């Protein structure tokens, strides 16, 4: 049985470590992702070495996701400087270690706990006499503080100098025991008999220079050469097995919804697949992908660090930067687009999300009104929102709104219509925020629809990648305004691009908002907020749908409110208009009526709307007052609204 030994490395010489574990020669520096086989204590290992990846966050998201129970991860981070945080050494080491553990906690989908070997490199650069003690104490302190995250894995820690043979030899025996333990705990898999036939076809396709295929095309080519018809589920099982032993790559989890070919033996019947199995890609030539493509995808020529300051590339420029020959250009760019590692604008230019500049434009203070939603992990001790997820969201945004309305940076985006919507991830990558703002009154609905539309795209991505491990909150507008003010102050002292959000923004779940509305109390928290100040009362109908006729008139649906205003704003010959409504709702005096009338005239507002804001009641009481006024036209508008809401809920 073979084992996937995934190695993630930022600072240490992993190739040297592999040499000391498996011998016999020192390999050269790695390029891209190296997949090799080795034997350890008589057991075959498949070693994936990611050390040659500059843009690690994107390729790792593709290749590290696994459900195999026989997977061992190796995480290497630098111990240099951890004896003191005077120059940020401890903070840097903690960030490295926790980043990768959180990353692995969301990529590994098996029910079993994966084994993680944590290697602290550069122990030789710590104070010599206490280096081992310092390293172990540092690790234990981090583990105690993040115990729930560490409990997601079977973790072993080794501080060592990778260039010292005796240091590296020290982990031979523990590694051998780990491999043996994984072997004992892994149930024997039933190898599908069609695997050999599939690999014969794969070998034939490779000879034809076919380097990758989409699922349906691949399934058709396999079914044509098999002696007997098979179920599509059998083919899927065989392909997953070949993926697990690294004979090919099966990448189903990042692509648009599609169909699975041939559900019944010998019949071309398409049925829906689960979200993580649709429109999969089969990589036939792994060396081409891992070396020729990923080996140059992180090319320095594409990086902002190269000094080019380019964020959009013509086809020829991108091909030249990636060292693609004429025969490889179409296939390589097609594959990178399918992976969503690059995307093509409507103008035919290419954008590489991984090489966008850090930090977005300053938060605009021109928006008087702010609303937002956030997504955060239910378990605050694990998980994160990856760079790859944000890059995929950027691609969705440019497809939805076009390049003229979108601007991007690394980890964020800005969409501008009548309103504007800013998408960004917090510095610790634990929170994803969608922050909307508008200035003109008629742009409130536009902001609501932006949040709804983009929020749905975010939730589709999160469901496909993270299941139900996240929760949605509605952000506090006061806090958002303060965030904007802080950004403006930073701009005054010379910061051109905004820094990320460091502290977690507070917010409220919809259930908390609903309960506060039911009890007619403010939302508890750092800021005292009323429920209608957090949501969009005339656009978001969830409160109205939940409470029915017991709902406050503050939550009247927008078009219904407009209808009531148009019916009651006009003065009635028998005084059955907004003035009479004010008297019935709140015993409005003549002076109050005069004040409302002046405010409506001076600000161009509806007096009916001002009365409803001043004297909110439940809809049942509002209907009673309107009935007493003999305004059946207004009562009918409210009843129609409730019927439409009921039909909408039933049809969902």
TrEMBL record:
Family matches, as Gene3D superfamilies: Death Domain, Fas, P-loop containing nucleotide triphosphate hydrolases
GO biological process: signal transduction
Family matches, as Pfam families: Death
SUPFAM superfamilies: DEATH domain, P-loop containing nucleoside triphosphate hydrolases
Record-linked InterPro entries: DEATH-like_dom_sf, Death_dom, P-loop_NTPase
Domain Death residue range list: 563-642
Species assigned in the record: Engystomops pustulosus
Origin superkingdom: Eukaryota
Stated name of the protein: Death domain-containing protein
């Amino acid at each position: 049985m073979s084992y996937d030994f995934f190695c993630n490395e930022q600072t240490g010489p992993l190739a040297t470590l592999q040499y000391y574990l498996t011998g016999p020669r020192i390999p050269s520096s790695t390029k891209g992702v190296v997949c090799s086989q080795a034997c350890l204590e008589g057991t075959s290992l498949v070693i994936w070495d990611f050390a040659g990846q500059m843009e690690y966050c994107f390729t790792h998201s593709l290749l590290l996701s696994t459900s195999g129970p026989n997977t061992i991860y190796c995480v290497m981070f630098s111990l240099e400087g951890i004896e003191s945080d005077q120059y940020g050494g401890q903070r840097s080491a903690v960030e490295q270690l926790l980043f990768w553990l959180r990353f692995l906690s969301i990529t590994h989908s098996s029910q079993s706990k994966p084994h993680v070997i944590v290697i602290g490199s550069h122990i030789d650069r710590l104070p010599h006499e206490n280096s081992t003690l310092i390293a172990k104490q540092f690790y234990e302190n981090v583990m105690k503080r993040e115990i729930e995250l560490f409990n997601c894995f079977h973790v072993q820690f080794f501080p060592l100098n990778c260039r010292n043979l005796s240091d590296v030899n020290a982990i031979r025996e523990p590694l051998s025991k780990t491999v043996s333990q994984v072997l004992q705990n892994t149930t024997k898999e039933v190898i599908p008999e069609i695997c050999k036939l599939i690999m014969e076809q794969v070998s034939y396709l490779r000879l034809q220079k076919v380097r990758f295929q989409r699922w349906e095309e691949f399934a058709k080519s396999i079914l044509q050469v098999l002696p007997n018809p098979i179920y599509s589920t059998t083919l899927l099982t065989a392909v997953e097995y070949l993926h697990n032993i690294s004979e090919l790559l099966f990448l189903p989890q990042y692509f648009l919804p599609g169909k699975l070919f041939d559900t019944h033996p010998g019949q071309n019947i398409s049925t829906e697949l689960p979200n993580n199995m649709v429109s999969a890609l089969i990589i036939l030539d792994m060396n081409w992908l891992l070396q020729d493509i990923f080996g140059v995808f992180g090319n320095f020529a594409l990086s902002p660090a190269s000094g080019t300051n380019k964020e959009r590339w013509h086809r020829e420029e991108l091909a030249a930067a990636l060292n693609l020959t004429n025969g490889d250009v179409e296939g390589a760019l097609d594959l990178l687009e399918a992976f969503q590692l690059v995307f093509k604008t409507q103008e035919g230019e290419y954008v590489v999300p991984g090489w966008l500049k850090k930090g977005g434009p300053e938060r605009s203070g021109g928006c008087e009104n702010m609303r937002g939603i956030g997504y955060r992990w239910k378990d605050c001790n694990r998980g994160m929102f990856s760079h790859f997820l944000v890059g995929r969201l950027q691609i969705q945004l440019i497809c939805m709104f076009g390049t003229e309305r979108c601007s991007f940076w690394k980890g964020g985006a800005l969409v501008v219509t009548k309103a504007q919507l800013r998408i960004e991830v917090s510095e610790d990558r634990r929170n994803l925020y969608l922050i909307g703002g508008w200035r003109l009154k008629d742009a409130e609905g536009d902001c609501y629809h932006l949040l709804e539309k983009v929020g749905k795209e975010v939730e589709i991505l999160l469901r496909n990648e993270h299941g139900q491990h996240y929760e949605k909150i509605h952000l506090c507008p006061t806090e958002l305004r303060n965030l904007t003010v802080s950004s403006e102050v930073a701009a005054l002292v010379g910061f051109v691009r905004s820094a990320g959000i460091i502290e977690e923004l507070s917010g409220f779940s919809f259930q908390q908002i609903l309960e506060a509305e039911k009890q007619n109390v403010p939302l508890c928290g750092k800021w005292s907020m009323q429920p209608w100040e957090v949501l969009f009362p005339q656009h978001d109908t969830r409160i109205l749908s939940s409470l029915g006729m017991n709902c406050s008139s503050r939550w009247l649906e927008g078009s219904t409110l407009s209808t009531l205003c148009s019916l009651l704003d006009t003065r009635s010959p028998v005084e059955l208009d907004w003035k009479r409504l004010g008297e019935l709702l709140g015993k409005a005096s003549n002076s109050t009526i005069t004040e409302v009338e002046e405010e409506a005239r001076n600000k161009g507002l509806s007096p009916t709307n001002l009365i409803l804001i001043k004297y909110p009641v439940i809809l049942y009481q509002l209907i009673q007052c309107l009935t007493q006024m003999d305004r059946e036209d207004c009562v009918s508008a409210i009843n129609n609204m409730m019927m439409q809401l009921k039909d909408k809920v039933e049809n969902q």
